[in-house]
Amino acid sequence: MNLGIFSDFAVAGSRRKKGLVRGLMWLLVCCLWAFVPVAEAAQAPLRPNIIFILADDLGYGDVGCYGQKLIQTPNIDRMAREGLRFTQAYAGSTVCAPSRSVLMTGQHTGHTRVRGNGGATPLAQSLRPDDVTVARVLKEAGYTTALVGKWGLGDAGVQEVGLPRRQGFDYFYGYLNQHHAHNYYPTFLWRNEEQVQLRNEVPNEDKHGAGVASVRVDYSSDLMADEALAFLRRVQDRPFFLYYATTLPHANNEARQKGCEVPDLGIYADREWSEPNKGFAAMVSRLDRDVGRILDTVRELGLERRTLVIFTSDNGPHREGGNDPDFFDSNGPLRGIKRSMYDGGIRVPFIVWWPGVVPAGRVSHEVIWFADFLPTAAALAGARVPAGVDGVDVSGHWRRPSTKVKRTAPLYWEFYEGGFKQALRHKDWKLVNPGAGKPLELYDLRKDVGETNNVAARYPKVVGELAAWLAVLHQETPDWPTNAPARRAQAEPAPVKP
């Protein structure tokens, strides 16, 4: 268009021409106004597909990008190079079931339904109808949802209120019961509410399907990985959420010293290690292979710029099935392993991968945890966050790591095996209540990542202020009775400053 015509109209001084000028200019403004929202919408990121890969009993130091020297994990290491790797990410608990409950509900172990591997009532290991999971949130937002792998938050035969498809998942394949999940060669797996028979034979199989196979044909981890890839191909044309909860590298506890069950030892067969250590290493490398298969499939389908993939573990490393975590330095610089309230039991590897959105090759020292996943996924999906969630949306930090995560309360954990224990983290302070009447312990993680120097006596005011939170953050439940004080503070204490 020749814009010079506007000045000609102005010089002529004609009302008719001035009116025409105003009309043309108004039409131009309207066109631009209509175009702007379209341009902004074109630049806005689509609601991403979400894949959450949860390893089982994988330690902070069990993969190469977190310092592992003996076990090869090239695919996970590549994921870290192409994504954002966290050094201070925390699981929901120090054991399996409660950690997964925190992940699914966004509530810490003082609030979430399932708080341990056990409980005082028949439904203590089961979610209930009023529990809102991240799967339900995403399903209501229009996502197709699937769980492939280990559930552990509801079983068949006990009212069945906690079954995956009653908790927001459209599809389920794998293990319902965590004891059943110990056995890598079971006689069956679940597909939705039906048992799928396998070719394995397990003498003296218990009522949950757990045991040790005498005939080993179908390796469950391989079957579940194949099922996850098949799901991705089925739903590639619509938004999806895949929760891939592999059992690797958890041991088969019923097999005792031969519990690191794997079809072959691979590259570790000729190492001068113990057989359990060879088996554990082979399990971790098999896990790494499956992570690579998932990422390769996402790329093959052309979904990498529309798909957020998260990799982490449910708790710290195990000393089961003959595995020796000290041999592999599985907890790295941290103190403790699975079942410990020190960081070795709850700090986990955590990698976020989303090409073109999450910056590649970055390392974040920001503190995040499992409770953050539900509000973060809801924000990315444009969904409503349910009331009572303890985590916060950290998607802004994932996109721009210089953005700080804002919290109003400490991170909190409680544990029931061997007596009631608690721990919390606020900024760089870590407070541990070891239970059994023992005094509280305080650690400055900024200076003492290994929690070797208890500074409670040096900072009694900090101990007192943080200890006030221990009562506030725990809510009583008949499923998980404790020896926690009955009296509760009336108001939340103010967070202390380091």
Description of the molecule:
This protein has 498 residues and is of the alpha/beta class. The protein has three domains: 5-43; 49-399, Alkaline Phosphatase, subunit A; 411-473, Arylsulfatase, C-terminal domain (2-Layer Sandwich), CATH 3.30.1120.10. The chain is built from twelve helices and 14 strands. It has helices spanning 5-12, 15-43, 74-81, 96-105, 134-140, 220-234, 275-300, 325-328, 343-346, 373-381, 395-399, 460-473; strands spanning 49-55, 84-90, 144-150, 171-175, 188-191, 194-197, 240-245, 307-313, 347-353, 362-369, 411-415, 421-426, 429-433, 441-444. A ten-stranded mixed β-sheet has the order 6-5-4-3-7-1-8-9-2-10, with helices on both faces. α3 crosses α7. The chain is globular.
Structure summary:
By secondary structure, this protein is of the alpha/beta class. The chain has helices spanning 5-12, 15-43, 74-81, 96-105, 134-140, 220-234, 275-300, 325-328, 343-346, 373-381, 395-399, 460-473, and strands spanning 49-55, 84-90, 144-150, 171-175, 188-191, 194-197, 240-245, 307-313, 347-353, 362-369, 411-415, 421-426, 429-433, 441-444. The strands form two sheets. A ten-stranded mixed beta sheet has the order 6-5-4-3-7-1-8-9-2-10, sandwiched between helices. It has a four-stranded antiparallel beta sheet with strand order 11-12-13-14, with helices on one face.
| Low-confidence regions | 1-21, 23-44, 484-491
- Name of the CATH class of the largest domain: Alpha Beta
Shape descriptor reads globular
Q: In the CATH hierarchy, what is the superfamily of the largest domain?
A: Alkaline Phosphatase, subunit A
Into how many domains do the coordinates divide?
Answer: 3
Radius of gyration: 26 Å
CATH topology annotation of the largest domain: Alkaline Phosphatase, subunit A
One letter per element, helices H and strands E, the order comes to HHEHEHHEEEEHEHEHHEEHHEEEEH
Please estimate the helix content: 25-40%
What would the average pLDDT be, to the nearest integer?
Answer: 90
Number of helices: 12
What is the first-to-last residue Cα distance? 63 Å
Strand order of the largest sheet: 6-5-4-3-7-1-8-9-2-10
Q: How many β strands by DSSP? A: 14
Strand content: 15-25%
**Biggest sheet architecture:** 10 strands, mixed
